[in-house]
Amino acid sequence: MKYTILLSALSISFVSAYFSIVGLTAMFPAAFWSIVIMGTVLGIAKLVSASWLHHNWKICPRSLKIYLTTAVVVLIFITSMGIFGFLSKSYITHQTVAEETKIILSQLDDKIQRENDYIQRQNEYLEDLDKQKNTSSTNVVYNIELEQKKINDLYSSLDKNLKIDNDEMSRLSSRLKVLDEEVALLNAKSGGLFSSKKKKLEELTVKQKSERDEIKSKLTSVESRINKAREDTESQVKSIRAKIDERQNDTGGKEDLSLKKEEYNQNIQGAYSKIESMEAEKFTHQNSQLEIEAEVGPVKYVAELIEDLGAQSIALAEAIRIIIMILIFVFDPLAVVMLLAANMSFKLASAKPYDKLSDTIKKKEIVKHKTIIKEVAPPASEPEPKEEINQVASSSLDITDVKILK
Q1: Of residues 355 and 154, more confidently modeled
Q2: What residue ranges do the domains of the chain occupy?
Q3: Of 190, 199, 247, 405, which has fewest CB within 10 angstroms of its CB?
């Protein structure tokens, strides 16, 4: 049993130290190996200090006892803080993925809606072509108006696309501004002789680097998408204007309505193909979102349970924090307590039982600590105390003191 307790204590301590070190490295990414070495050494020192205090509590000086006890408690708190950081980072990463999935789904919905609008416009063009068959006399003017309508629709679609991309650029720029404000706020703080301001700035720069690079990459991508959309639109508008000029120069020409109708039908088919592709992609992201929600489902039920017990409305993040606090409360403290329990088990197991004493030694020890008083009746004539005493002493070895009461 003692080895089981020791193995359990060391296992819990090892796991808690691993989670704590990972959490602390997430808080201080610029000093990864320093944190790993420091966390490992302090974790071992914590267990050794607790074990040493247990074995030497009675002989340990009061000052050393207070310091080591305080150090063990502080190290338990630091380990728990690292575990809290590790679990919090996991939840934040999980929520970031969920938010990105929601944004992607929203963008897909917008793209599908734009394709549906495009199909509707193509259908309107087909209807216009059907009407055009009965108005051949105004064919040229009608076609020019139709081409002009295409230009207007292209610019309208471009404005919608640019609005979405500009909103995305505004969101990214706002986030970049927040990061700049964090650096500016840290720069604004006064630094004394022993201030760690420079080190904090370096850590903050390293921490923000990946996010800044990602934001700049996204901004570049959005700008490229905006430029491409404008170029494509201008190219199509230029082609349509060339057709308008051609119709204006040749008013007697007739448009081949059947070829035009075929072109619109092909455009509609292409739009439907894009919608099907985006619907498939949307289905994939929706499944991913459902899996993410299923992962945090138990936490939601815990929050609802706490609310059923009389608490106010609890958000998901608050429920996560409550669960993390419960876990760290029984994690590293349990490892230290179980290590002390293992020490007690080994100490009891190694203690030698008392050797059995011989009957003579037992009697001597009993006689040494007992005084038996026996009343003896006074003699009628001259007493012989010595003989009386010898008889009494021979009757019992437990008698060490005999008093004659008169």
Answers
A1: 154
A2: 73-328, 359-395
A3: 190
Find the distance separating the first CA and the last CA of the chain, reported in whole Å: 65
Q: Considering only CA atoms, which of 180, 210, 14, 183 is closest in space to residue 93?
A: 210
Helices 62-132 and 257-295: crossing angle in degrees, nearest 10, is 160
Question: Mapped to the 3 state alphabet, what secondary structure does 207-247 carry?
Answer: HHHHHHHHHHHHHHHHHHHHHHHHHHHHHHHHHHHHHHHHH
By CB neighbour count within 10 A (0-12 exposed, 13-18 middle, 19+ buried), where does 399 fall?
middle
Q: What is the pTM of this model?
A: 0.43
- Asked if residues 191 and 197 have their Cβ atoms less than 8 Å apart, the reply is yes
Asked whether the beta carbons of 225 and 167 are under 8 A apart, the reply is: no
**Contacting residues for 75 by C-beta, under 8 A, at least 6 apart:** 42, 43, 45, 46
**Burial (Cβ within 10 Å: 0-12, 13-18, ≥19) of residue 60:** middle
- Distance separating alpha carbons of residues 403 and 384, to the nearest angstrom: 14
Predicted local distance difference test score (pLDDT) of residue 352:
55
CB 397 within 8 A of CB 367: yes
CB 186 within 8 A of CB 197: yes
In single-letter form, the type of residue at position 191 comes to G
Q: DSSP for 139-186? A: HHHHHHHHHHHHHHHHHHHHHHHHHHHHHHHHHHHHHHHHHHHHHHHH
Q: CA-CA distance, 149 to 124, in Å (whole number)?
A: 11
- Max Cα–Cα distance, the chain, nearest Å: 174
Indicate the CATH number of 73-328 among 1.10.287, 2.130.10, 3.10.28, 1.10.3210.
1.10.287
Q: Write phi, then psi, for 320 (nearest 5 degrees).
A: -60, -45
> Can you read off the two tokens belonging to residue 25?
């490295």
Least confident of 162-176, 291-305, 353-367: 353-367
Band (255; pLDDT cuts 50, 70, 90)? low
d(CA 210, CA 215): 9
Structure tokens at 328: 């760290």
The residues, ordered by sequence, that sit 6+ positions from 202 with a Cβ below 8 Å of its Cβ are 30
How far is it, in rounded angstroms, from Cα 112 to Cα 263? Answer: 21
Q: By C-alpha distance, which of 176, 159, 171, 177 is closest to 226? A: 159
